[in-house]
Write a structure and sequence with these properties.
With 308 residues, the protein is an alpha/beta fold. It has a single domain, classed as Ribokinase (UDP-N-acetylmuramoyl-L-alanine:D-glutamate ligase), CATH 3.40.1190. The chain is built from eleven helices and 14 strands. The strands form three sheets. The chain has an eight-stranded mixed beta sheet, sandwiched between helices. The chain has a four-stranded mixed beta sheet with strand order 3-2-7-8. A two-stranded parallel ribbon has the order 5-6. A hairpin with a 2-residue loop joins strand 7 and strand 8. The longest helix has 16 residues.
Length: 308
């Protein structure tokens, strides 16, 4: 059966620093891969489009998607390019990322690599600004995938995930702006949105983005929760208080849970409530993938929060 949700981007093998003695634990990352896994853990039929190296790291990722129930049947194995990796360190200022992804297999994707039939058979496409930023050809591939999806009547979700180490702000603003105009669902984080728009107030940012074309904006705001906006209404969901140890991938968990709920037919507000809880739970463990919760944990958490 074809996936309902297709995510496109760059997966990475992750080495996350543990608190004991500076050791690193191997795991997995890459924002759109995390999103696909989070959606699959909530019960959505998810698939992933990318290229990985014909190396042990690429094999690890293929095995990960198989175990997580994410369809990787159209993932390309590139014998001439490596799979990207990154390291996460933790300090007083929070977590820091150190990437080794130059000339990765995913960064060399082109529009010609896209399986248009696979995209057209889905219901929703998810892409992000990181995938635009890793190379010019990858940026073109993101736009091409969005156009295929739009022409086929799919909903398109775009995450503004801003990484200024990958590209200058002026280019980021231009390319992200063009992608937003092609999106139905927009997933910004407040700090990124402030840099991209020059605006400070969350309500003004949501208004700005809705004016560009998306019909649904779900903006995560860290300790200030989530602001959900449509042309008709605004809803503010407060943050959940948990014993957080690592926020790596929390936004991706929100994405996957949110999109899974929308695909299951839930209203945006209920989808955002669920995703807000799932993202909070994901911060209680280390790494981007391992702590992504499953539905029973999220529902239990929501039930306990409702009676607290």
């Amino acid at each position: 059966m074809s996936p309902d949700l297709i995510c496109l981007g760059e997966p990475l093998v992750e080495f996350s620093q543990l608190p004991e003695g500076g050791f690193y634990k191997a795991g997995f990352g890459g924002d759109t891969s995390n999103t696909a896994i989070a959606a699959a853990r909530q019960g959505a039929r998810a698939g992933y489009l990318t290229a990985v190296g014909d190396d042990s790291f690429g094999a690890m990722l293929i095995d990960l998607w198989r175990k997580e129930g994410v369809d990787a049947s159209r993932v390309k194995r590139d014998p001439a390019a490596p799979t990207g990796v990154y390291f996460v360190t933790h300090g007083a200022a929070g977590h820091e990322f150190h990437y080794y992804r130059a000339n990765s297999a995913a960064s060399q994707m082109t529009p010609a690599d896209l399986p248009a039939d696979y995209i057209r058979a889905a219901k929703l496409l998810h892409v992000s600004a990181i995938s635009q930023a890793i190379s010019e050809s990858a940026c073109e591939t993101v736009f091409a995938a969005m156009e295929i999806a739009r022409a086929a009547g799919l909903r398109v979700c775009f995450d503004t995930n801003l990484r200024l180490k990958l590209w200058p702000l002026d280019r980021a603003r231009a390319m992200i702006g063009e992608a937003i105009r092609r999106a139905d669902i927009l997933r910004p984080a407040l700090d990124d949105a402030q840099k991209l728009t020059g605006l400070e107030q969350p309500e003004a940012i949501v208004d700005h983005y809705l004016n560009l074309g998306p019909r649904l904006v779900a903006m995560t705001m860290g300790r200030d929760g989530v602001l959900l906006g449509t042309p008709e209404a605004r809803h503010h969901l407060p943050a959940h208080h948990v014993a957080a140890v690592d926020a790596t991938g929390a936004g991706d968990t929100f994405n996957g849970a949110f999109l899974a709920c929308l695909l299951a037919g839930e209203a945006p507000l209920e989808a955002a409530r669920y995703a807000n809880a799932a993202a909070a739970l994901s911060t209680t463990g280390y790494g981007a993938v391992a702590p992504i919760p499953r539905p029973e944990a999220v529902r239990r958490f929501l039930a306990e929060a409702a009676t607290a």
